[in-house]
Amino acid sequence: MVVDNAAEGSSGDQQKSKKALKKEAKEAAKSAKKEERRQQNARTQDEDGEDYSTGRYGNLPMIQSTEHVSRTFTPVHDLTESLAGSDVWVRARLHTSRAKGKQCFAVLRQQAATVQAIIAVGETTSKAMVKFVSNVSKECIVDVEAKVVQVPKPVVGCSQQNVELHVSSLFVVSAAKPQLPLQIEDAARRDEEEGDGLHIRVNQDTRLDNRVLDLRTPANQAIFRLEAGVCRLFREILQSKGFVEIHTPKIISAASEGGANVFTVSYFKGSAYLAQSPQLYKQMAIAADFDRVFTIGAVFRAEDSNTHRHLTEFVGLDLEMAFKYHYHEVLNTIGDLFTQLFRRLQKEHVGDITTVGQQYPVDTFEFLDPPLILEFPAAVAMLREAGVEIGDEDDLSTPDEKLLGRLVKKKYDTDFYILDKFPLAVRPFYTMPDPNDSKRSNSYDIFMRGEEIMSGAQRIHDPDFLTERAKLHGVDLEKIRAYIDAFRYGCPPHAGGGIGLERVVMLFLGLDNIRKTSMFPRDPKRITP
Amino acid sequence: MNGPNSMYKMRPIIKLAEEIDLPKCMYKMKVIQNSHCVVQKDRSTNDRLASAITEQVNKFLKKPMPEVVALENRQEAILVQLAQLKQQLNNLREQLKKPTSCTSIKIQVQNTYKNGLHEEIVVKANPKRPPYSLLALNRLLQNSINIRNYVHSTTEDLGEILKQFNKTSNSPLFNIRLIWKDVPDTEFLISPTKHSGITTEVNLLRFLSRSGPPELNYEASGDAVFASIADELLDTCYRIVKETTIKGRQIHFKLFGAALQKYQFLMGDTVSVVDIAGWSALKQIGYVSKDLPSNVNKWIERCNHIFGVNVAH
User: Which stretches does the entry tag as region Disordered (chain A) (predicted)?
Assistant: First the structure.
């Protein structure tokens, strides 16, 4: 067949270079040799006598749902001493394998759980089977039938340390390419500066280019399970507080905040923008008497900032709430939301947190109940005492925020705190000014490990006052007409805020890069995969 | 007196022999002050000049100088002022020694607050050993302590304790943020940049008593012996909490008993910081009346009454 092809090629295209011809010839020779070797192999096997393990190993045909097989599979993390002596079926990935004479040691991995498996030549296992198993490449998905055996010494390096599997049959369900762009072991190696172990690391970009493989590491499995937990708890807690989940449009006609950092998309004959915050719609829902609303959805920011904590698309968890007389009603609700969230995460995701901690060693997240609320002037005083020069009406710079985070941690022993009463000058025009001090505002930032995660405020709900404030800020009234008009038919006083899911998970776990907590991160330099 | 320009020369006081016999066993060295040699050379001219100046000065000194008179007057005035100040200080000392009633504390409260102890004190306490002394102190200071409670994430819910410690004051003398955490000893900190944390409840009390009204400051009297006895008893309070056996504790109770033989309270006939510490320590260990000497039992009853907080232990 190869020869045929070559002939066709030469007749079809006279221009084919000598080099290409040579290459083709070489390939033909190679495949011929391969074929020969294969036949030889078959012959030697025949010489060895009949393979008595036939039917106990091999490559399964592609599963196309041809038949129902009622077979119970045991999850790897359930393989414990209690199952010792019983036969189980396991579908897992071949993590590593190592042949040693007449036996082959393998590690099977299923999500974060690993178990050692042994295939040894014996009554039912032939030499050929052991050879086959040792040639199965890493990351193949295999079906394994095996006996669970308790081991005298715990198996170091596996999550199931007290048992191992004595394999009686093994089938490859889905094969992986023998050469992997990154080794799962390298990608899962503990992040330590010191130590005697190997120092092979997988570059962040390599990880992201091969995200499917990278996500198979135990730490990544745990991170995204925890991320799902944050979303779930955010919903549960807010629903228990009487919030209603709403969905806001992502294609909008005008920029809701400022306008410099929005993505433009073509919209039929004109153009539209991608929403950079659901704020306007949350507020309209409040004006429409939904009382308390939250939304979870994608948010887009066209900021060309390549930092460890900025993404161009992220998941926003936003809430807005009407209050009776004081915006602290809202602030306390938000504070309680976070306290409950952290408490339940630490309780319900204890395994995930430890798993992540095994790869990225970091201190446990600490917080106070009720959350610590500091006023902005107090924070400025703390910073000044530490030698930072900062004006009364200045915003905090990123290094200042970090330093303040460390000071607060040292003094109050908490990684989570709320900073209240920001200077009015550094807040957007719709922020309600403080009634007692014209330089302050009813606005707050929330910090985790010294990094801002939420910025919120009491919004101005009076259209005339809002117009006045917008004029003062030099905002084009035409552009925000729709926003102001939303309050013309009466609107309860309200406040709210929004957090970025990825950032919260990153800071809760103490990771150093937001790309670690976004499954397929989008930043100014990456839109694939 | 009139600056360096118009200085007068003086005659040498000691006249040296022209030639000095130097012993031979010593090194010869160059004269260091070369200028001195120059002076010696034209001595004769200098001598004449000096004698003229001396005469002038002598004449001058015979008249009394107006500057000197002014200076003398000023000195007198200062001495009188100093004497007055000393008298005032003595008066103050006398006043402080007098026993004061609770009403006078209230006046002091405002003063201290103005003096600037509005900085926040962060106290970390173990819920198994609540610092009851804060409650007692608050009672003595007529609710002038602001306590805000926080539960640290490493600690479980506390229930009842929290409510007892929630204290708000309109004109707070101390602002305390109380963080409940599994710490081995009560800790407190004021500024993370200037100070390091200080441990134990008695040290917290010592600090508060110093920054609070002087009535509670056992060092204010200036009596070193009194202060050291108080310190010793405060340390005893700490040991009571740390001691794990009843027998060990009873040794310390006996010390209390001895202190209470003459007086109603540990440091005399008025309530002091030491009583607060002792009362809090006994509360924390959950004392049993039969383990205490009888006079200590009476004393704790008195304390319970004064501090008015019937804290279940």
Answer: 1-59
Q: Summarize pLDDT for B254-269 with one digit per residue, the tens.
A: 888 888 888 888 888 8
CB B157 within 8 A of CB A343: no
Query: What is the phi/psi pair of residue A37, to 5°?
Result: -65, -40
CATH number at residue B151: 1.20.1050.130
Q: Do the chains contact at A365 and B194, CB–CB below 8 Å?
A: no
The distance of A295 to chain B (nearest Cα, Å) reads: 28
Domain residue ranges of chain A, discontinuous segments joined by +? 58-174, 184-214, 218-516
Question: The sheet that has A416-420: what strands, in order across it?
Answer: A244-245, A292-300, A313-322, A494-500, A451-458, A443-448, A416-420, A372-375
The verdict on B113 touching A (C-beta cutoff 8 Å) is no
Question: pLDDT at position A230, please?
Answer: 96
Length of chain A: 529
Are B125 and B182 within 8 A, CB to CB? no
Choice among A239-243, B14-18, B46-50, B187-191 with the minimum mean pLDDT = B46-50
Pick the residue of B148, B153, B177, B190 with the most A CBs within 10 A to test the interface with A by mutation: B153
CA-to-CA distance for A205 and A207, rounded, in angstroms? 5
User: How far apart are the C-alpha atoms of B175 and A77, rounded to whole Å?
Assistant: 51
**Minimal CA separation from A373 to chain B, in Å:** 11
Averaged pLDDT of chain B: 79
Which is catalytic among the residues A24, A145, A303, A393? A303
B242 in reach of chain A (CB within 8 A):
no
DSSP state, B292?
S
The two tokens of residue A434 are 């403080």
Residue B192 touches chain A, beta carbons under 8 Å: yes
Superfamily of domain A58-174: Nucleic acid-binding proteins (2.40.50.140)
CA-closest candidate to residue A399, choices A412, A386, A411: A386
Average pLDDT over residues B131-137: 90
How far apart (Å, rounded) are the C-alpha atoms in residues A78 and A154? Answer: 16
Residues of chain A with pLDDT under 50: 1-12, 47
pLDDT recorded at residue B313: 42
Between residues 134 and 153 of chain B, which touch chain A (CB distance below 8 Å)? 150-153
* Residue B34 included in any domain: no
Whether ipTM exceeds 0.85: no
Task: Provide the 8-state DSSP code for B143.
Answer: S
Q: With contact defined as beta carbons under 8 Å apart, do A159 and A115 qualify? A: yes
Give me the percent of chain A exceeding a pLDDT of 90: 61
Interface of A to B at Cβ within 8 Å reads 342-343, 346, 364-370, 372, 378, 382, 385-387, 407, 410-414
Chain A environment of B153 (Cβ under 8 Å): 342-343, 346, 365-369, 414
Which residues constitute the domain of residue B238? Answer: 121-307
* Choice between B48 and B231, residue whose per-residue pLDDT is larger: B231
- Which class is A218-516 in CATH? alpha beta
Residue A280: phi, psi to the nearest 5?
Answer: -55, -40
Residue of A nearest to B177 (CA): A412
| pLDDT the model gives residue B115 | 44
CB contact under 8 A, A366 and B153: yes
B236-B239-B240 Cα angle (round to 5): 90
Number of domains in chain B: 1
B196 close to A (CB below 8 A)? no
A409 → chain B, closest CA residue: B192
Q: Which of A56, A440, A503, A515 is an active site residue?
A: A503
Q: Which two tokens stand for residue A456?
A: 């919120």
